[in-house]
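Extended Data, panel c. Modelled sequence:
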Amino acid sequence: MKIKKVDILKEAILKNNLSKQEDNNSVIFCYCSDLARITEVNYDEKTNCGEYWFDGNINNSNSNSKKNKNCINFVHFNGGLSYTHNTNLKSGVRIAISIDDIEDFDINELENLSVEYPLIAVGGRTSETLDRLFESKSKLILKTGRQHDIDGKLYDEYEVFGVRFIKKENKTDSKILSDGTLTSRDHDVYLKIEKIPLTYDEENRILYSSMILFGTVFDSKAVEFKDSYLKQYLNSGFLKSINDELKHEEPSILFNQEQVQNNRYNFDFSPITEEEIIEICINSNIAVFLHGQTGVGKTERMLALDKNLELIDFGCTSSDGFTGIVAKDFNSKELFLYEPYWYKSLCEKCKSEPEKLHILFLEELTNAKNDIQKVAFEVTLNKTLTNSGFRLQLPPNAVVCAAGNEASESKSANAMSEPLFGRFAHVYINTSSEDWLKWALKRKKTGKELLFKEHEDNKVIHPAILDYIRVNGDKVLRTQYTGVTPNADPRKWSMASKALYESNNPNVLRAFVGEEITQHFIQFCKMNLITVDDVINNRCSLENISADPSVRWHAVICLSTVDDENVDKVREFVKSFGPELLAVFDYEWSKDNPERIMKLYTSYERPAVKGLTLNGS
């Protein structure tokens, strides 16, 4: 089956359908494809209907030309027939094909008719994934060997596991695409290879496109369609493209180089107090900084946890009292360090009670000068006290906590440097004394103790955090530092992971990444997503899953964490979401892993890169 000739709709057919304006199948109004939008077709953003050429009567009495020369005809997006002399005008193209111009075509096989062309943009998250694939020169991108002719220019066809597309740069002003996204000038748009929607006009025995395919000029000289550039192009490059007569080589890798749970993580989402966050952080061996006005009870909260804590008050402690004194032995002439009293005392407590955690509490740390804050940073970071080359290591069962006033509330307070600020979990004490006393009495009654336990430094980041960052990317991995409230960064997420393992309550994250990110994280964790275990154990079906594209996209990203042993079953399940989301799954599961990439290419049946003739054979 082969098309011999392509035309555009004639004016007679358009006028015959003007009386059918109330009919939804009216031939006059026509949807504007994404390809048409980025090739300068005028369209109405409310209706998405655009302008397009038609083969008109050049002697039409409505023409403004006295001699009716260079009369170009197009349908306005409001449905009116227009006549103009602007030979440089660009408008849309709707093809019309006579049944008599199709070789070996059986009208009874009309439903099986397939003519393909790049029309609709790959949008949303899938488009972002394709951006990342091209930027990283991923081996997942397959060059099919086929090309598509768009207004005289050839575009290579690519495939990512079933999704075939071209990449075309938007050379117009910003345009709203069919999925509602905005594409800017000079930005790449990925256009899927799709079946052109064709409508059959039985009376006139023609097939015509019910979508504007692309935009182009009519001709700068020709008056009639039969003599125009548009006629010539449709029956040369475009015709070859839809008949699959353009370049067609062997496919190749483009960059060839080295049941449903509402609580998929089983979290406890109950409210959590600041005192509980403090205890969770200390039990996780994470340094805590308490914020709050004078007299709110910061020190009392620490004493309730460790009545024998080691306290350093920077409001009245000299620098030597914190760092120790370096002196010279007059006999040996060698330098030595007088260890500060607090260090000796802390070491003795930790040694005498190795099964317990002991707090080193840095009171009024914001009152310390910058040079002392640098030493405090080292104590917090590495549990090491340094002075003139001497290094004293804190015991493993010692944990550092601190408190201070905000620089805006105290003239003697200094703002903490960003590195020091970033080493603490930050707890903001706003509760009343009555609230705190209730907590303190409850703790005394239950008789809790801070017990020391070894923590695995190499424990993997909590899977909920991995999923959250995998889905939301850089915008949540790192947020802007303000010096007032916690901001997110990779170190904070690592600290938050320890506290999340300890508490199993996502509310604890506010001490590390701030309230806004924490609430967003909680909403993510409560999404109606499916787990890998759900799929493996047959606890869910497609009917159980929301049809919301965003929910399905999130689900696919999370399912992509499946291991090699169970990927076959999970991947088969993801297929039910369609080829675009399957492509996202394949990319996320296999990226940066050559063995997995090869498995995808060799172990699964990839849709054949077929010749795109009319019958698809």
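Residues 59-70, 607-617 have pLDDT under 50 and may be disordered. This feature is highlighted in the accompanying rendering.
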